[in-house]
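Q: What would this chain look like folded?
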Amino acid sequence: MTEMLKPKDYKTEVKPVWCPGCGDFATLSALTKSLAYLKLPREQVGIISGIGCSSRLPAYIDSYGFHGVHGRALALAQGLKAARPELTVIAVGGDGDGFSIGGNHFLHACRRNMDLTYIVMDNHVYGMTKGQPSPTTEPDWVSKLAPHGTGLRPFQPLAIALSSGASYIARGFAGDPATLTKLVVEGIQHKGFAFIEVMSPCPTFRPEQKIWKEQVREWPHEPTDDPVKAASYIHGDDGISTGLVYRRDLPVWQPPTVASHSVAQIAQEFSV
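A: My prediction, written as C-alpha cells:
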C-alpha cells in the first residue's frame, strides 16, 4: 500500500533562507501540497534546479533533487527524464536562470515536449546578485546596478513557450496559493511539457511588486487548445492575468532507454 503522505512530509529539515515575504515560499508550499494530493512517492520524484534564490528549492523538498549550474536546469531535467521516464520530473528556477543563460534550453525543451513540468519563479530581477536586471525586467526600472534602466523590451515567457511548442502554459501568483497549487497539480498531470510562470514578488529588491496583490486577475477567457487564440490572449495581456491559458495534446518525445550500442562499441567506432 502506498504511504499516505501529507504536505509537511515532503519537506526536509533544511530551512529556507529566502527573505521574509519572498514569493518563493508559496511555490514551495504549492509543490508539497501538489505532491501530497497526487500521492506521489518521494522516491519517484526528481526536483531539478539551476542557480539563483529560487533554485535552492530542491534542498527543501524530501525527494530526489539536483542543484545544478546556472541555466542548465532543463538540460539536467530532460536528461533525467530520458534515462528514467517513470519518474515525475520537475524543474524549478528563476527568470534570470531560465530565460537568460538558460534561454536556449527553454526553447528546445518546449519544442521537444517531454513529459515534465517547469516552474519559473519570476520576480523580474536577479535577487542573488543584489538587484541586477533580468530578461523580464521592465526597460525603465532603475537600480544601483542599472541607474539608467536597461532600455530593453522584456522577455515574454508565455509567448516564447507557445511559439516554441510547449503544450501546457499557465501563469500563477504567489499571493494566490490555492490557484497556484491547482496549476501545479494540473501541470504535473499533463502529458507533455508543462510551463508555469509564477509571479513571485521580491520584497528586498522589488518592493513595489507588493501592488501585484491588488492587480492580478484571472484570464478573461477559457483555456484554449488553439495556438492562434492563445497567442492573441497572451499578446493582448499586460502580464498579470493568471490561470491556465493554453493546453493541447501534442506528441510527447521520449528517447528509447535501451542502448543500441555499448560504450565499447562506440569507442571502437572512433578508433584510428
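The longest strand covers residues 88-94.
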